[in-house]
Design brief:
This protein has 136 residues and is α/β, with parallel strands linked by helices. The protein contains four helices and six strands, in the order H-E-H-E-H-E-E-E-E-H. Strands 1-2-4-3 form a four-stranded mixed sheet. It starts with a helix and ends in a 16-residue tail after the last helix.
Length: 136
């Protein structure tokens, strides 16, 4: 894999995790053990510019690319042996507009986060079976 300093020099704001990094093993964890792959690079992106830089980096280095949101893909599509764009660290927020009955959900949010945010506003979602909805 090529030198990662080019990403920081290009303005990458997130976190770059390589096999030598202390967070590497935890960055590979998925809901299903069979879906975990040993990525060369996990990029915790902060915004669309970070995503663009990582896609460009993967293309220029001919590396396979995956995007991890909640990490629940049993097929393994949220893992790669090349580069993983991980949305779970920084793009995981949920904002609820109770008046409009809308939730604005970051790509890295999990259903538990969505359920807690909507329940706090007296709303609920109709989706997923991984998280048990409990509005008390």
């Amino acid at each position: 894999m090529s030198d990662l300093t080019i990403l920081n020099a290009s303005g990458f704001k997130g976190d770059l995790i390589t096999p030598e990094h202390p967070d590497y093993e935890s960055s590979l964890v998925r809901w299903s053990l069979s879906a975990q792959k040993r990525a060369q690079l996990v990029a915790y992106v902060k915004d669309e510019q970070d995503v663009s830089l990582i896609i460009k980096y993967a293309r220029e280095n001919s590396l396979p690319l995956a995007i991890k949101g909640g990490g629940h893909s049993t097929a393994g599509s949220s893992s790669s042996e090349g580069v993983v764009i991980d949305l779970s660290r920084y793009i995981n927020t949920v904002e609820v507009d109770a008046d409009k009955k809308l939730a604005y959900v970051g790509g890295g949010a999990i259903w538990e986060t969505v359920d807690k945010a909507t329940c706090a506003k007296g709303l609920a979602t109709v989706a997923g079976t991984v998280n048990h909805v409990c509005c008390s």
